Predict the structure.
Amino acid sequence: MTHHPIFAEDLETIHCRLAPTWPRLAGGRLFFTGGTGFIGRWMLESLRVADKRLGLGIETTVLTRDPARFAAQAPDLAGYKGFRFVAGDVLTLKPDGQRYTHVIHAATDASADLNDNDPRKMFDTVLTGTRRVLDFARESGGARFFFLSSGAVYGEQPWEVTHVDETWRGAPNLFTHRSAYGEGKRAAEMLCTIYHTQFGMNIITARIFALLGPLLSLGIHFAAGNFILDAMNGRSCVVQGDGKAVRSYLYAADLTEWLWAILLRAPVGSTYNVGSEEAVSIGELADRIATQLNDGRFEILGKPDPGWNPGRYVPSTSKIRKELGLIPSIGLDESIRRTAIWNGWTK
């Protein structure tokens, strides 16, 4: 499915937009955690295109729990000459004696089920895993460390704050276990600050909000993915809560462009929101997806919201626009359409 025309078009767009930036990776030695997940796959696919076309001569090591399983899922990536997939886990990661120019820490299990049923493991995976990767990077010869954090670090966004920016001092609610993921990411950011200050490490951070696009798993705990799956299968889109929660969705190709731009161009110590400012209530989202992909049927059940944030979750991207000149190129409706087409929807 990665050869789908939609995906190929997206990769071409990413490559062209980053044309002036890719040469900064020439001769680079990269180490990835989370490279086999949704975000990591997008970054690796776009990196493979750039390396093949520009002859960057990069060497990329990807840490994954099950290299054989990933090779079956993505043989083109697993077999690429510039990529090496090694078995391991962030919780047990130790320096390997190699020198790296860039370490990208994208490994996080953002599972609602794990957050509910084993929040201690969730928190430990985020925090201890980040420390292990920081120590790994510190021993690798001055690598630039890129931490993929989350908008969840802000906690519940007040309704009057329409778009939360990087200076917001809110925090996750410490009186609910559902904050394990967000508080873990927040504490991991503090570790990054400590390592930058105490050891002089070259660290940048991206706080990622909600996403859409090819490779995104449908039918799990993401509302947009559930609605798309329902509509594609001719079912009514079902909103479990009251539909008033507000979200925004950045398309995966824009996400990928932004992440590479941050890694290769952002000043040391920078933190950026990565998301869309196009806010939509969950009820409206169900309506739009049902109308665009099916016959417009959707239901709002009005049950209590079991999630960590029943309110707003929408970033301000003013900083990344001003400092790096990055803006989304794909709006919400087109993001929905492209995600559905990649998953086999035809109108």
Remarks:
- The chain has twelve helices and 14 strands.
- Residues 117 and 177 are 9 Å apart (CA to CA).
- Residues 5-212+250-277+313-331 form a domain with the Rossmann fold fold (CATH 3.40.50.720).
- The two ends are 19 Å apart (CA to CA).
